[in-house]
């Protein structure tokens, strides 16, 4: 049955190959525009999960699964860029807890091969691998119930939709009005000449770190957090290895007192809770789905927050930071650091500090920017887009309304 408090789902078929911002815009913008227009609610906030099917993982065995991180994060960045541009055009708030008229959108990657065939007696179940990306059967088994399910009205979209509904059977009783087809765009795949080869595969790590303020969590934050999660190497269930750690430095309240519209900055606890709740959508896999309405169990320890997912195989640790370095120079056992274009120089500074302490350098990964320039209809859209995904602008808008912070 419908419930407006449940998220809606948009199932997107396979992205263009080769991957580009222009190609993603042509393929996905019509569907995203239609769905965002439909789920927006004047009386309240809405939630939307955009699930993109794509053959992402490689390797025969679970513990040897690999992926191309540059391609995966570029796909996520491209979709969040399109979402942000559309929301700017339609005056839809994008931040978590945005209130009436806002849409809290989460992009989820599903590893799926269009040529894969399932036996007639196949029964979907939750089968986590050592990465943050799940297959279609696991997605359907752990992500439910839904308010609306949107599918793309073309051949590939119908194929993805039918497979998903088959796996969802028995999980949720759906009304016909909850199943909504929407128009798709143009997807092109260019045949590659010569022998086919996989893109360079990326190592995954037992300890990944990143930092930020994460005030009014918006698509730029979500891209950063998703990109970091993609680099986690999670142990298998029952493996005696310790859990992989996702360490997220969140700027302490004292460092934000001089921010513009500082009275509207969320508290550290609010920001950390939003970060963990968002990450839970990517990492937690429960046979109950989210139908019981439970939130992640957060352990407050020494002023920091911790939560564990997937039967204790993944630990998320939100650390309160009071300087530009945070845990990267206080915790030696970290493997990888995620940075954005704005914090690129910080990665080099971190490794210089670690070298001074005799510690090994971190592998530094830079995420793409959310850029409207390649996908908007004109230069004015870019400026509007930038203001919509800025925490400072969000605080300014709330101050102008004269309302409360939340």
TrEMBL record:
Gene Ontology terms, MF aspect: dephospho-CoA kinase activity
A matching Pfam family: CTP_transf_like
Lineage: Eukaryota, Fungi, Dikarya, Ascomycota, Pezizomycotina
The name this protein goes by in its record: Cytidyltransferase-like domain-containing protein
InterPro entries: Cyt_trans-like, Rossmann-like_a/b/a_fold
GO terms under biological process: coenzyme A biosynthetic process
Organism (species): Chaetomidium leptoderma
Domain (Cytidyltransferase-like) ranges: 210-396
Superkingdom of source: Eukaryota
């Amino acid at each position: 049955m419908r419930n407006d408090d449940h998220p809606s789902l948009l199932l997107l078929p396979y992205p263009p190959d080769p991957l580009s911002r222009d190609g993603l815009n042509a393929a996905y913008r019509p569907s995203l525009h239609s769905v965002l227009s439909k789920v927006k609610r004047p009386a309240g906030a809405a939630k939307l999960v955009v699930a993109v099917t794509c053959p992402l993982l490689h390797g025969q065995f679970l513990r040897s699964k690999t992926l191309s991180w540059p391609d995966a994060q570029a796909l996520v960045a491209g979709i969040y860029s399109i979402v942000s541009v559309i929301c700017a055009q339609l005056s839809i708030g994008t931040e978590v807890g945005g209130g009436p008229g806002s849409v809290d959108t989460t992009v989820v990657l599903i590893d799926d091969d269009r040529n894969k065939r399932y036996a007639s007696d196949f029964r979907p179940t939750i089968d986590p691998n050592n990465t943050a990306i799940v297959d279609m059967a696991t997605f359907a088994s752990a992500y439910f119930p839904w308010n609306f399910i949107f599918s793309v009205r073309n051949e590939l979209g119908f194929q993805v939709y039918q497979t998903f509904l088959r796996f969802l059977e028995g999980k949720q009783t759906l009304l016909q009005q909850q199943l909504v087809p929407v128009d798709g765009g143009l997807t092109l795949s260019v045949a590659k000449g010569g022998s086919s080869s996989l893109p360079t595969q990326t190592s995954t790590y037992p300890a990944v770190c990143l930092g930020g303020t994460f005030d009014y969590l918006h698509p730029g934050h979500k891209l950063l957090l998703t990109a970091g999660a993609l680099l986690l190497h999670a142990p298998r269930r029952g493996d005696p290895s310790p859990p992989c750690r996702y360490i997220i430095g969140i700027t302490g309240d004292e460092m934000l007192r001089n921010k513009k519209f500082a009275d509207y900055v969320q508290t550290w606890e609010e920001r950390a809770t939003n970060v963990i709740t968002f990450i839970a959508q990517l990492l937690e896999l429960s046979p109950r789905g989210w139908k019981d309405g439970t939130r992640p169990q957060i352990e407050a320890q020494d002023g920091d927050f911790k939560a564990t997912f997937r039967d204790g195989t993944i630990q998320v640790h939100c650390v309160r930071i009071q300087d530009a370095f945070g845990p990267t120079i206080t915790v030696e056992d970290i493997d990888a650091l995620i940075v954005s274009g704005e914090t690129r120089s910080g990665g080099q500074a971190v490794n210089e500090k670690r070298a001074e302490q005799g510690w090994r350098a971190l592998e530094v990964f830079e995420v793409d920017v959310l850029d409207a320039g390649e996908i908007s209809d004109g230069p004015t859209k870019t400026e509007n887009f930038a203001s919509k995904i800025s925490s400072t602008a969000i605080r300014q808008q709330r101050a102008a309304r004269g309302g409360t912070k939340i």
